[in-house]
DNA sequence: GAAAGTATGTTGTAATTACAACATTTTGGG
DNA sequence: CCCAAAATGTTGTAATTACAACATACTTTC
């Protein structure tokens, strides 16, 4: 197991190595590996496991009965997912979680939270709050990216956000074309087409997942 | 101030009247009234106030420079909003908050959280976690409602969710036509038109904000 | 209860998207 | 290096949506 990435995570912020080791034990930490494309959770499942990506990445997505995929979020190395379901253990998952590439996930049992002493628990809860509130902002962001009615507007909304985050007009995005299309809720072919037009119009330059805003 | 609605809120779950009174003081609780249409927060503002609706309701929305409105959420009596921004006090708001009708809001200062003792704080943080995780599920829900490419699919996705929540095929929705259109990210006229077609097709019956799924 | 204002429904046309089919480029084994 | 597979780009047509303009219904106020 990759210790350093967990030690640097938001969840354990402010905890020293000894405390983290104890918490890992108390929360039944267990790591598992997944091949690209594997489904880690399916819609309808129940879980009390807070999940942490130690390697690779996963997509949080919804797949309807006609095979349409909507990507809500991409969770990369060093980030958490399923925190809402772990903390509301009655609620069945509304989403699928899928390995976007080969990946390793650490599972932490949240039902064990109640056993911790108040001080440790308060510190951990404060960190969990940071995780959930940040996730909230991510979900809001996606809403703004999909809000424009037209494909070009959605692309620009998304690219602007990434550009601001990376403090640069030139950056890589974590999505391939199909994933970006499913994230922005548009047809892949329409996305490709629009990206071409935007390059012809001198708005952007792009090659694969490298983008430049002009 | 309407005490009972605050006492029954998720935030104070498990606290007795004396504790709640102390907490209200510690968190500088203050109530304010707003007329329908008033903007309570604007995009870009910073706040550390957790907000609670004691009467009426507000919309969490995004208004772009062309006057297009996207409603992310409708927050009614007994519910909280701005919790993400209150808990991440560096982050400027991405959204506007607008009084959907005449309403009363209680503001609770979250910067005072650190002063509480561990036990009280752990209990309060646990409740805050419930608020943020539920908000997360709400935001996810909206993503599913706006995921279908076609207007009819979006309407059905939304109505199904409401129907399941209310355990009935017949129910009222909290939106008027313009709000529903802005929530589902479609044109109001297209929404009205599609609702008419769906009634002709025998899928639903509706009058004003009362709906029945057939 | 009339008038004014607001909300909702209807319709037509221009613009956009969905979808399918196919071309081209890139990637990963052997 | 070549081949197969995957990813990305292109194009055309049918279907859908955006937008504007207007009709109707419902509410509020005087």
TrEMBL record, chains A, B:
<feature type="domain" description="Cyclic nucleotide-binding">
    <location>
        <begin position="11"/>
        <end position="116"/>
    </location>
</feature>
<keyword id="KW-0805">Transcription regulation</keyword>
<dbReference type="InterPro" id="IPR036390">
    <property type="entry name" value="WH_DNA-bd_sf"/>
</dbReference>
<dbReference type="InterPro" id="IPR018490">
    <property type="entry name" value="cNMP-bd_dom_sf"/>
</dbReference>
<dbReference type="Pfam" id="PF00027">
    <property type="entry name" value="cNMP_binding"/>
</dbReference>
<dbReference type="GO" id="GO:0003677">
    <property type="term" value="F:DNA binding"/>
</dbReference>
<keyword id="KW-0804">Transcription</keyword>
<dbReference type="GO" id="GO:0005829">
    <property type="term" value="C:cytosol"/>
</dbReference>
<protein>
    <submittedName>
        <fullName>Cyclic nucleotide-binding domain protein</fullName>
    </submittedName>
</protein>
<dbReference type="InterPro" id="IPR000595">
    <property type="entry name" value="cNMP-bd_dom"/>
</dbReference>
<feature type="domain" description="HTH crp-type">
    <location>
        <begin position="149"/>
        <end position="214"/>
    </location>
</feature>
<dbReference type="GO" id="GO:0003700">
    <property type="term" value="F:DNA-binding transcription factor activity"/>
</dbReference>
<keyword id="KW-0238">DNA-binding</keyword>
<dbReference type="InterPro" id="IPR014710">
    <property type="entry name" value="RmlC-like_jellyroll"/>
</dbReference>
<dbReference type="Pfam" id="PF13545">
    <property type="entry name" value="HTH_Crp_2"/>
</dbReference>
<dbReference type="InterPro" id="IPR050397">
    <property type="entry name" value="Env_Response_Regulators"/>
</dbReference>
<dbReference type="InterPro" id="IPR012318">
    <property type="entry name" value="HTH_CRP"/>
</dbReference>
């Amino acid at each position: 197991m990759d210790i350093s990435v967990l030690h640097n995570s938001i969840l354990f912020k402010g905890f020293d190595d000894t405390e983290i080791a104890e918490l890992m034990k108390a929360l039944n930490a267990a790591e598992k590996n997944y091949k690209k494309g594997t489904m880690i959770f399916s819609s309808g499942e129940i879980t009390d496991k807070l999940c942490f990506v130690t390697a690779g990445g996963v997509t949080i997505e919804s797949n309807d009965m006609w095979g349409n995929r909507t990507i809500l979020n991409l969770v990369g190395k060093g980030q958490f997912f399923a925190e809402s379901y772990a903390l509301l253990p009655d609620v069945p998952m509304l989403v699928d979680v899928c390995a976007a590439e080969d990946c390793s996930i650490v599972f932490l049992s949240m039902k064990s939270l109640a056993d911790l002493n108040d001080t440790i628990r308060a510190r951990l809860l404060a960190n969990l709050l940071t995780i959930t509130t940040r996730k909230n902002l991510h979900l809001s962001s996606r809403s703004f990216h999909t809000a424009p009615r037209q494909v070009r507007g959605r692309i620009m909304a998304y690219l602007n956000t990434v550009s601001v985050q990376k403090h640069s007009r030139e950056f890589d995005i974590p999505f391939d074309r199909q994933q970006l299309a499913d994230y922005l809720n548009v047809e892949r072919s329409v996305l490709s087409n629009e990206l071409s037009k935007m390059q012809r119009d001198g708005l952007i330059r792009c090659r694969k997942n490298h983008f430049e805003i002009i």
